[in-house]
User: Which sequence fits this backbone?
């Protein structure tokens, strides 16, 4: 049985959208889903929503929840896929700042890709808790090499700020 571990499952809307799609797929609907978060109340909200979706789709998946750093290893054990939706820095101040920056400074475009300042700050926070190489390896699969090189230069510039 496939196991999908969702780190940062307290982000209920994102978890609902991603895992709802998984539960709608014949290939993935009979999986085990491990929801993980450090906030027990937010995790409980997501668990209720994901269980409701699962029931509506035929109750094929096994849903389990893990809260706190002490349970992270157990949540990850045997995972076929890991979705990292951890929000580094929390809603306040990070998410709030992510929305205030483009209001003040706007956005810019490089090679038909729209960049907004919060994307850069979010990437900086995310990469600080994961490996730079892993994040870029995943991104590389979805971009052509010239565009990827430009993005790397842009990110490296941001890290030198």
Assistant:
């Amino acid at each position: 049985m496939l196991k999908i571990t969702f780190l940062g499952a307290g982000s209920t809307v994102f978890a609902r959208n991603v895992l709802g799609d998984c539960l709608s797929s014949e290939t993935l609907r009979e999986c085990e889903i491990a929801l993980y978060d450090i906030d027990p109340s937010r995790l409980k909200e997501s668990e209720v929503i994901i269980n409701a979706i699962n029931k509506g789709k035929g109750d094929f998946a096994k849903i389990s929840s893990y809260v706190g750093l002490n349970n992270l290893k157990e949540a990850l054990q045997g995972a076929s896929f890991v979705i990292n939706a951890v929000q580094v820095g929390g809603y306040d101040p990070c998410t709030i700042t992510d929305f205030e920056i483009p209001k003040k400074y706007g956005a810019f475009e490089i090679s038909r890709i729209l960049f907004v300042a919060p994307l850069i700050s979010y990437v900086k926070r995310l990469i600080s808790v994961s490996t730079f190489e892993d994040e870029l390896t995943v991104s590389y699969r979805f971009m052509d090499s010239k565009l990827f090189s430009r993005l790397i230069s842009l990110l490296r510039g941001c890290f030198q700020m």
Observations:
- Residues 128-144 have pLDDT under 50 and may be disordered.
- The first strand starts at residue 3 and ends at 7.
- The chain has two domains: 3-84, 90-159.
